[in-house]
Amino acid sequence: MPETRKNKRYGESLEQLLGLKTSPLAVKMVVKKKDIPKHALRPKKNQGKHYAQCQAFSLARRDKLTVAMLLEDSFCPGPVLAYGFVPPPEAHAHDAGINYEGFEYGRYIGILTAPLKSASFEPDLIMIYADTNQLRSMLLSIDEKERAGIKSSFFPFSCAWAVTSPIIHNAYWITLPDPGEYVRALTQAGEMIFSIPAPKIGRFMKGLKKFFKESMFANEQMMMLSDFPQPEIYKKIFKAWNSGQQVNKRNNTTLTTKHTKATKNKG
Question: Among candidates 100, 63, 72, 26, which has minimal Cα distance to 186?
Answer without folding.
Answer: 63
